[in-house]
## 1
Amino acid sequence: MPTDSLPLPALHAFEAAARHVSFTRAAEELGLTQAAVSYHIKRLEERLGAPLFARRGRSLALTEAGERLAAEVVDAFGRLRAAVGGETDMADRTLSIASVSIFATHWLAPRLGAFQAMHPEITLRLATSGDLGDSIDEALTADVEIRSGTGGFPPRLAAHRLLDVHLACVVAPRLAAALKDPADVLSLPLIGMAMSWDAWFAAAGIEAPPSQRKPAPRFDSQAASAQAAAAGLGAALVTPAFFAEEIAAGRLVTPFPLTVDRGKAYWLVHAAAERHRPKIRAFRDWALAAVPT
């Protein structure tokens, strides 16, 4: 197709609307009215013969055809921005990161000094949230997000797997000596979610019905569960990579090598259109190199 026949204004409007999942925010970015963005999208839909957006209640979502087109168009405009503005991008020296709390506090924060030493020109702004799963209907809240889940992110986003969610049993040192076999863990209160313990006992080949389990406190974070285990309140299931320092120092003990794969992972996510921006590329490459392979 000759380039002069491409509906470039309509594609530009679609690219912005797909990134933001919002006609209003696309209009603000492009300096257009919402009606103008809507007109461009309608023109493009008529040309392609398929709807690109669908209303879901009060929110907007890409259709299947919209997702396919967005994957190509958003990436293409991202490459154009990188080619034209790659040097000036570094003038924007602040990289915003939103992360699930446990990853931020127990993996990312202790390592950020190494990133800053490599990239002193970039200022980091880190925020934590408990609502960063793999279901994303709106635009991202930061340049880069660390999310947890099974994956399946829409094509408008680039997602990179960082760490798999593996859980191991940990206890306080004074409780570890009495644990000779995984079945002995039933002698302790089981801190944390019952479903996780179900999976751990199943992996150990042990039947552990609720009637055999002692009452135990439940927390909404691995950090709190690990602290309770270190205080001797029972056994907890945690991701060993987040508590390597506590395990190495002997504050927590893993009495058995058994770990259970929960089928989830922590993902580094950013807009596909931003994949070539220097500050995002620098952080992405550093993070992927820092995780164990």
## 2
Amino acid sequence: MAVVDRIAPGDCLEDALSILTRCGLGEPALWIRPFRHLSEGEKFRARLARAIALHAHLSSRVPLLCDEFGSLLHRRAARAIAYGLRRLTTQYGLTVVVASAHDDILPDLQPDQLIRFDGRGRSRVETLPVRPGRTFSLRRRMRIEAGGKRDYDSFAAMHYRATDELGFVDKVFVLRERRGGDPLGIVVYAHPPLELAMRNRCTDNRFRGNPARLNREMRILRRLVIHPDVRGCGLGHFLVRKTLPLAGTRFVECLASMGAYNPVFEKAGMTRIGRYETPAATQEALRRLRSMGINPAGRDFPDRIARRRRVRAIVAGVVRTWYEGTTGRGERRVEKQSPQRLAQTFRALLGSRPVYYLWERRANPKE
């Protein structure tokens, strides 16, 4: 059973995805992965998400018990999960009892009451103040540093579009645990595609047919990746918000496939313009394939692409158009792709309805 189906089965999909994201499982590839294929840290997060989802819908407030909380995880991952648990506890009005031998989770867990045992059968109860809106404790020492395209190599496998190229990269910024420390996040700004319908609509065609102005005034946020250890702690919108002014252009745009479920770019200060529909040309390609008895979701789809030139031509046409509008060199790239890769990309495009965001630098009132 896929992970998402284990989270409050039969309930609203958006609620399940929201809880998974808060627990640090915000990647579509993880949602559809069988539980047994998750790492130990991911399994812990998935179990926690399921428990929270089930308790949130109980008529009586039965306490949720978490024994040995995060004891097998990297300590920064345990602190991140504690931070997410506190937020979900507040959001759903839960009562949670956490048992742990580690004090480092306290600043992020923010328990209302703390019971300490001294090992001699005695205990001491403390009532602690809760500070709403408190940021993730590790964020205070994190640093954002300029990086390069090579820095993305260590993050590529963490993104659900790991095989796609980044296009013409302009600037890269890396979020580190401390100055010169482990990289925990990355954001990539690149030169934008020549034409986007929503861009033209919301900018009154400012860039239509004017590539020189587009290159001068616009960048596209091509990738945002946060290390799995610290997802669900607000570091994504923190990194974007801090680096948007550093992109060096008046405008920054973004196409986010997960924008419907994760408002990270809105929290960072970008404006949601709208959500794209599946292009008419892609819908027509799907109709033609179905009229030929081809099912793009079928296991034999790559084999059909390999054996039938007409099928390959239809699929390659859709993929080529998408490449030309995003990273360029569509003809050359499609020619080299295997039937399996073409099938994978075509399927992804069928289900892709990205949200378009735009950020504009505020004018300096002194100017």
## 3
Amino acid sequence: MRSVAVRVASEAAEFVRHRRATVDWTVSVRTKSSETDPVTLVDTDCERLVRRRLASLRPGDGVLGEEEGETGSSEVRWVIDPIDGTVNFVYGIPAYAVSVAAQVDGQTVAGAVADVAADRVFSAASGAGATVREANGLQRPLACNPVSDTRLALVATGFAYSTVRRERQAQLVAQLLPRVRDVRRIGSAALDLCGVAEGRVDAQYEHGLGPWDWAAGELIAREAGAVVVLPGADARSPDGRLIAAMAPGIADEFGQLLTEIGAMAPIPG
């Protein structure tokens, strides 16, 4: 299933790269949960491409996608995000990804995240480690940073489109910032999780993600050694539950810090 995830994510990433160069932005963007939450025709077209490829390579498997919901029912469920980081995609900020994961009984067993702009593909399978394939085709194993002090940790996070939740998230960042090295808001949860896996950041946390945002990335981080806190396979954005991934050397300390500032609690909205 890992090879299927890598193949489909890679093909979808190539599709997104080509479409971004040709898309008509005057007719290709609409909104979802709020005026600041965009979805493009490329999102929906890419998800349909992924669904067609999965139907060909894994006939009979169920699929859960961000744009078109859940179809089918089987032991294996594919969870897909056609473009994670749509705002970055719209603005031309090179941090957006295609995420494809296979789950069994709600647990991710294989997954791939394709960094579209950088032409890199992260992947993992349960018990088999995590790797990244670089743009030049070379592949290397991933491992979290050996950081052991939360005060030296670079932390990634993200913010919701709901103004109520954003206010609470801003309060949490204000409490966290004096107690870590720094905070980064990259704009793609899937890439944040892969960042933990390869040591570009030391920890990640965010509230209110859907399973398509984290299904592949959490496995990649976990297989690279990260300690991961998950919201549950069927949690949805309105639940406001936390997902976090932490390099193993700071997992206990950073987890305690999240507890102290109240970040372990859900932020519904």
## 4
Amino acid sequence: MKEPDARTGPPAADGELIRFDQVTKRFGDHTVLDRLDFSVDAGRHVTLIGPSGSGKTTILRLLMTLATPDEGTITVGGQRLFPAGEKQVREIRKNVGMVFQQFNLFPNMRVLRNITEAPVTVLGLSKDEAEQRARELLDLVGLGEHLDKYPSQLSGGQQQRVAIARALAMRPQVLLLDEVTSALDPELVAGVLDVLRDIAHTTDITMLCVTHEMGFARDISDQILMFDSGRVIESGAPEKIFSEPEHPRTREFLGAVL
């Protein structure tokens, strides 16, 4: 597999890239995030684990501005994401890419255009520059020969790899991964995870990942955050969390999934 350009996104200053300060998010009477505090340093790979409904995906949706917090502040790259004006939010969003559980490809566009559409329309890249970048990324994810196909002509695993390439085409500072293998048949999971391992190990992009693939989390993460009831109850290096968890809820959760 071709090694990617390590300069995946714009240069990020050393230190903190993402910060949540006392963030609360409610859906009706249900509090999903409860005065959440956490941060992610530039270039780090952080994985969020915990039971379903603990607030992990909500964090990613807030960073993508698909939801808004009820209380608290969120900053990305030292700039306020919430609360902030619409123009500032749009500018920050350019530095955040996300790969969803469902591939969300445009069914009426060929693979190449699925990847070039946003860089041309949002970033203002020329068609030639966007296509060159798209071809490099398709080589990276092992799909260089499929650029003229439509999504319906690809397997689920191939569609998810196109979605990864599409997110990287925007050269984000941070890549958000939301259970990216959960919609795939078991035999297709390994190929997608291998692509993400390569990206994690050969680029400087910051990654914030939600997954139930604990082996993958151990392989790619610098830090694991254990969530329960909308809060981080334990954090640490993968070796510590998976081998010597301290919190009883962490031990209970890992005992059920490992």
